[in-house]
Design a protein that fits this description.
The chain has one domain: Rossmann fold. 32% of the residues lie in helices and 19% in strands. The relative contact order is 0.14. It is built from ten helices and eight strands.
């Protein structure tokens, strides 16, 4: 396996991309691999280590190349900066596909909690005129992810909002409802939104399951494909739902939820 760190965007020096790539083997006869960009959560206040490298290994085992996106947070979370970094990463990987053995047709963004919001935003807001203009992509979809994989994502700025995440995105705890609504991903879905695999738990009290239900409903209403898994039990932040990511808390070890990784990998590999 190849492992290295990139700082691909001079204008965003805080943003790094950590690569985990399969070694190229003539015996395997695999020229390029479907690729996953992992976005950890952390309410746009920090980046969770539990939602970074631990989730890399299962995706590697399923044959993907994986990049962890350490996007900007805290005071740098406003003005769409994390979104620009995510979309620039998609563009960067397509432009360097041969160098990193990336299949340019299959670049997925996987996010957890607030990282799920970032992934979903990339899958919806990439098409907004102001985003295209800022990235110089008015006449190309090189920055468009193939699909998203969302784990207990922050989605809505409304009744079921994770308020701190939207405050960080707006750059103020005093942001108006209208300002927060811009980042409400369920309101940004169109027929051009990318397909999504989504999972959540009913017992999630920090980011209520209604976030995923609202997003799935918006996708359905716009004719966009998705697969949704809602598990009855489990708190927020399950990640892999096993000992690797439970940090000693038994309530975060739920075998029925741990199945999501295999289901997501199957969905991504079957996507045409």
């Amino acid at each position: 396996m190849k492992h290295f760190i990139l700082t691909p965007f001079p204008e965003y020096p805080e943003c790094t991309l950590v690569a985990y790539l399969h070694d190229k083997s003539p015996e395997l006869k695999i020229e390029a691999r479907r690729t996953v960009i992992v976005c950890p959560g952390g309410a746009y206040m920090f980046l969770s280590d539990r939602e970074a490298e631990p989730v890399v290994l299962p995706f590697l085992a399923h044959g993907f190349n994986v990049f962890v996106l350490n996007y900007s947070f805290g005071e740098f979370a406003k003005d769409n900066r994390p979104l620009y970094e995510a979309l620039k990463t998609v563009k960067f990987l397509r432009e360097h596909a041969a160098e990193y053995d990336v299949d340019p047709d299959y670049i997925f963004i996987n996010g957890y909690s607030a990282g799920g919001h970032l992934a979903a935003s990339a899958g919806t807001m990439y098409d907004l005129p102001e985003i295209r203009k800022a990235l110089g992509c008015e006449d190309t979809d090189i920055h468009r992810p193939t699909a998203t994989v969302l784990a207990y994502p922050v989605i809505s700025s409304g009744e079921y909002a994770h308020r701190d995440s939207f405050s960080m995105l707006c750059g103020s705890h005093d942001a108006t409802d209208e300002e927060r609504a811009y980042y409400s991903v369920d309101k940004q879905v169109t027929s051009k939104t990318v397909p999504s695999f989504i999972w959540h738990t009913v017992e999630d009290m920090l980011v209520p399951v209604q976030n995923s239900l609202l997003y799935a409903s918006a996708l359905a209403n716009n004719g966009v494909g998705f697969e949704l898994h809602v598990y009855p039990h489990g708190p927020h932040g399950l990640v892999l739902a096993n000992k690797e990511t439970s940090y000693g808390q038994s309530e975060l070890e739920l075998p029925e939820c741990a199945k999501w990784v295999n289901e997501a990998a199957r969905w991504m590999m079957n996507l045409k």
